[in-house]
Design a protein that fits this description.
CATH class of the largest domain in chain A: Mainly Alpha
Helix content of chain B: 55-70%
Largest interface: A-B, 112 and 114 residues
Structural class of chain A: mainly alpha
Oligomer: heterodimer
Largest sheet of chain B: 2 strands, antiparallel
CATH topology of the domain at 73-128 and 196-313 in chain B: MetI-like fold
CATH superfamily of the domain at 73-128 and 196-313 in chain B: MetI-like
Distance between the termini of chain B: 19 Å
CATH class of the domain at 73-128 and 196-313 in chain B: Mainly Alpha
Strand content of chain B: under 5%
Structural class of chain B: mainly alpha
Chain lengths: 290, 320
């Protein structure tokens, strides 16, 4: 299978180019529209490069205090959840990765069962409320702290680390915590990075739990802020039907909506190229069991 | 596999003490390992198992002020109500139909993408396509809904702009029950295809390259190699993923449906997640909403167990 190109290869490359275009076009379009005027958008909504550059939309958004509160809240939620859950995953996965630890299969069943059956929305909501977490950012943090799926990924990865390393440390009198944090954790960097990425992205994007558990505007997350920016105008769109001239009167013109989308996804797009090699590796090692 | 070779080490069991000791002594010696498991066990107890006991709300005329211990027990009344409610059957149907469409149209996509990617010879290009195709997985549904609403709007929406330019009539995509499912399926494909292809690519990377070379020598052409080597090689992965999807046929996800839902498309867009939310947290029918949720949980549980059983019957590994 050397590099001789057949007809099929050209077709295949065209198909893959198509995948790239279909995936990236919406991002480029949204970015372009967010940097131009509403008038220019009306003339060529399909643009990927604006003729007339303006940052009006961004300046309007930056002027909204609710953007800053929700941004800060989302950063808090994401950072705290990621740190705490990584710690939790490490200490949980390590004992479970030890072969023949007594009671291990019972604990695994206890964990896996939560993947298959849940109390449902209202009972969970009631527990959160009873714990005094309603309308608190900690509700969003705590409800996303642990997932059996993620702990299984970390556990599977740790199982692939040779036992001899652990045994050698034990003979030297190292404690379990020392072994975990000084030997196992550094070797598990790929999977820890992957799971950290899952948790961070999940929390950055989380929307349902914000709707369930947060009430005050001061507690809003980015998703709720974004929802208001978007729905604010589309409600007007519904009322005005297809009346073109009514559209200009909407609360948030498309340029502002798109600017808000860009502000929301920017941190993800900025980090993505750097972490993507880790998560592909982590996913492959973690998910493929021999 | 590699683990077997290391068996000659001092403690073959992988724990500090070989398990012949009495259970008490064993636990004392390994106390730190058990202590490490404690936070997760407590966490699941509070946030997963406690809500399971909260299911009792489904059998109560539940009132937030009275709480779970003082609310009146009413037996199966909430369930009687539920089975009489026309809306409930609609929700049930919508949930299954939407998942089914997602399965039929969405499931083959990552397999196709992975098979095609596997045939790309230019390593750099292959990696670039992968990097790009994973990206939508990291974009939230709120953002995607925000894009869709503007793209599909009747006034100045991009899609209708193109339709008009081509001489067509504007289509009220979001204001009609006709298009909702199609929109959801396309959005799902856009968001998940690349990411879901990872498992298949991982499975392919484990295939023996020598088999391909042997096939090449035997004169197998490209499509024969795909058909007889690649696809059978990833078949067990395909089946495992399929089982997972079948088991979650009642799940559509709150986030992806809620944003694009409106009164005009409600008859097809109301699914379990949105219905329990509205009934419970918006209208305060806690008992009724819990009953709906319990119905869903039980059916889902049976589905997961059932599909897993079938999978094992057919000689697949199953999920556990």
């Amino acid at each position: 299978m050397k590099n001789k190109m057949y007809f099929f290869d050209y077709v295949n490359i065209v198909l893959m180019l198509l995948v790239i275009v279909v995936t990236l076009y919406p991002f480029l379009n949204v970015a372009a529209v967010s940097f131009t005027t509403y008038e220019e958008y009306l003339m060529k909504p399909m643009m990927v490069w604006p003729d007339e550059w303006t940052t009006t939309a961004y300046r309007t958004l930056i002027g909204k205090p609710s953007l800053w509160t929700s941004y800060a809240n989302t950063i808090f939620i994401t950072a705290v959840t990621t740190i705490l859950s990584i710690l939790l995953y490490l200490v949980t996965a390590y004992p479970l990765s030890r072969k023949n630890l007594r009671g291990k299969s019972g604990i695994m069943t206890y964990m896996v069962f939560t993947m298959m059956f849940s109390g449902g929305l209202i009972p969970t909501f009631y527990v959160v409320k009873m714990l005094g977490l309603y309308n608190s950012l900690w509700a969003i943090v705590l409800t996303a702290l642990f997932s059996t799926y993620n702990v299984t990924l970390v556990k599977n990865f740790m199982e692939s680390i040779p036992d001899s390393l652990i045994e050698a440390a034990r003979i030297d009198g190292a404690s379990e915590f020392y072994i975990l944090f000084k030997i196992i954790a550094p070797l598990s960097k790929a999977i820890v990075a992957t799971v950290a990425m899952f948790v961070a992205v999940g929390q950055w994007n989380s929307y349902a739990t914000s709707i369930y558990y947060l009430k005050d505007t001061s507690k809003w997350t980015l998703a709720l802020f974004l929802r208001e920016i978007i729905l604010g105008s589309s409600i007007t769109d519904v009322i005005s039907g297809s009346g073109k001239d009514m559209m200009q009167e909407t609360v948030n013109p498309i340029t502002i909506q798109y600017a808000a989308l860009i502000i929301t996804v920017l941190p993800i797009l900025a980090v993505y190229p750097f972490v993507q090699k880790y998560f592909v590796k982590g996913m492959m090692v973690g998910s493929v069991k021999e | 596999m590699g683990k077997q070779k290391k068996i000659a080490v001092t403690y073959p069991e992988g724990v500090y003490v070989a398990p012949q000791k009495s259970l008490f002594k064993y636990i004392i010696t390994n106390k730190w390992l058990y202590l490490m498991l404690l936070p997760a066990v407590l966490y699941l107890l509070i946030f997963n198992y406690l809500p399971m006991f909260g299911i009792v709300i489904a059998f109560q005329d539940f009132n937030m002020v009275k709480g779970i211990f003082k609310s009146e027990l009413i037996g199966f009344e909430n369930f009687m109500l539920l089975f009489k409610e026309v809306r409930f059957y609609e929700v049930f149907r919508n949930s299954i139909v939407l998942s089914f469409y997602n399965l039929v149209f969405g499931f083959p996509m990552p397999v196709i993408l992975a098979v095609l990617l596997n045939e790309i010879k230019q390593d750099f290009f292959k990696r670039f396509v992968q990097t790009v195709s994973y990206l939508p997985h990291f974009i939230s549904w709120v953002v995607i809904a925000g894009m869709l609403m503007n793209y599909l709007a009747t006034s100045n929406g991009l899609v209708n702009f193109v339709i008009e330019k081509l001489g067509g009539e504007k289509i009220p995509f979001l204001m009609s029950p006709k298009y909702f499912r199609g929109i959801m399926v396309v959005a799902n494909i856009w968001k998940t295809t690349g990411w879901s292809s990872i498992v298949y690519l991982a499975a392919m990377s484990n295939l023996d390259q020598q088999v391909y070379e042997a096939a090449l020598i035997d004169g197998a052409n490209r499509f024969q190699r795909m058909r007889y080597i690649t696809i059978p090689g990833i078949m067990s992965t395909i089946i495992t993923v399929l089982i997972l999807n079948m088991g979650s046929i009642l799940n559509n996800g709150f986030e992806q449906v809620f944003m694009l839902q409106n009164t005009m498309n409600l008859e097809v867009s109301e699914v379990f997640e949105t219905y329990t939310y509205k009934q419970g947290l918006m209208l305060g029918n806690f008992g009724y909403s819990t009953a709906v949720g319990l119905f869903k949980s039980v059916v889902s549980f049976v589905l997961v167990m059932g599909t897993n059983y079938v999978a094992r019957k057919f000689g697949q590994k199953g999920l556990w």
